[in-house]
């Protein structure tokens, strides 16, 4: 299999390395010359331009920042060979629905979202085993047929297990399990920083609970700016629900009551943990 990867950040780089481990021939494009040199050392073919290799690959993985997706899909459709599959790795899907609709035979679309990541970004942090044991969302769009064999092929290469998600639920799901948790985590970090003058010892007394809760909040700010803007409507809705919940709990505590919902939190978390294999290192979606 010959695959081209557009964008060698954390996700694109990890996909490229996973493909190399599977024995695939991997071409790649990135605007960063330092990344190109790093990729060359890994065995990724970067000595030719994307215009030169795009006719030679069977699939093109699109792992660019969200702002560049609308630039690259028309480019790919204009230059790729007939029969090529565009494998989209975007973390937000709804804003690209009309763009995806342009991908018609002889081209095809496979829209994936591996639920894995790190607090850091960049090719230097990429890992061919990043996706092993993790869920990978297979996003279904109306009128776009998916090749089950191709899906299974990718799950094998990534080491992931598939979760099929309708496109119109994807972004709301991500707001619930990824995007709003980032904001909450960042809020806890901000709360701690605001206590620098009154409780200056806080950095010395944190335990694993604080570190667990704030891990995702330490992720790359520029990446999250893009994500939050692209999924703003869903995030505002979920965040409003969270704010209402905190308001209700605060009222209950003021009345001397223990929030009843807290008795169910362990079983709620276990429902999610039972669906996901423990990662070898901290990850986030």
Automatic annotation (TrEMBL):
A Gene Ontology BP annotation from the UniProt entry: tyrosine biosynthetic process
Keywords on record: Oxidoreductase
Family annotation (PROSITE patterns): PDH_ADH
Pfam annotation, one family: PDH_N
InterPro entries the record matches: 6-PGluconate_DH-like_C_sf, NAD(P)-bd_dom_sf, PDH_C, PDH_N, Preph/Arog_dehydrog, Prephen_DH
Residue ranges constituting the Prephenate/arogenate dehydrogenase domain according to the UniProt record: 1-283
Pathway where this protein functions: Amino-acid biosynthesis
Any GO MF annotation of the entry: NAD+ binding
Protein's UniProt keywords contain Methyltransferase: no
Keyword Oxidoreductase: yes
Protein family according to the UniProt entry: Belongs to the prephenate/arogenate dehydrogenase family.
Entry protein name: Prephenate/arogenate dehydrogenase domain-containing protein
């Amino acid at each position: 299999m010959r695959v081209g990867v557009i964008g060698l950040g954390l996700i694109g780089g990890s996909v490229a390395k996973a493909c190399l481990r599977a024995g695939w021939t991997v071409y790649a494009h990135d605007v960063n010359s330092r990344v190109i040199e790093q990729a060359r050392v890994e065995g990724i073919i970067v000595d030719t331009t994307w215009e030169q290799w795009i006719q030679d690959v069977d699939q093109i993985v699109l792992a660019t920042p969200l702002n560049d997706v609308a630039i690259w899909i028309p480019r790919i459709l204009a230059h790729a060979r007939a029969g090529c599959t565009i494998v989209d790795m975007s973390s937000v899907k709804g804003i690209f629905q009309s763009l995806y609709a342009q991908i018609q035979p002889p081209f095809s679309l496979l829209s994936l979202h591996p639920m894995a990541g790190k607090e850091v970004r960049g090719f230097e942090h990429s890992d061919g085993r990043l996706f092993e044991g993790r869920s990978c969302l297979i996003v279904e769009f109306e009128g776009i047929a998916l090749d089950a064999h191709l899906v299974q092929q990718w799950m094998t290469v990534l080491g992931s297990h598939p979760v099929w998600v309708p496109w119109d639920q994807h972004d709301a799901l991500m707001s619930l399990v990824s995007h709003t948790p980032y904001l909450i985590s960042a809020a806890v970090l901000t709360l701690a920083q605001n206590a620098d003058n009154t409780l200056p010892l806080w950095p010395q007394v944190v335990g694993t609970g604080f570190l667990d809760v704030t891990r995702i909040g330490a992720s790359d700010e520029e990446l999250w700016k893009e994500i939050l803007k692209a999924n703003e409507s869903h995030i505002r809705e979920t965040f409003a629900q969270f704010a209402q919940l905190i308001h209700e709990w605060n009222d209950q505590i003021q009345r001397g009551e223990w929030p009843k919902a807290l008795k169910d939190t362990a079983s709620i978390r276990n429902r999610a943990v039972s669906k996901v294999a423990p990662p070898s290192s901290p990850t986030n979606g």
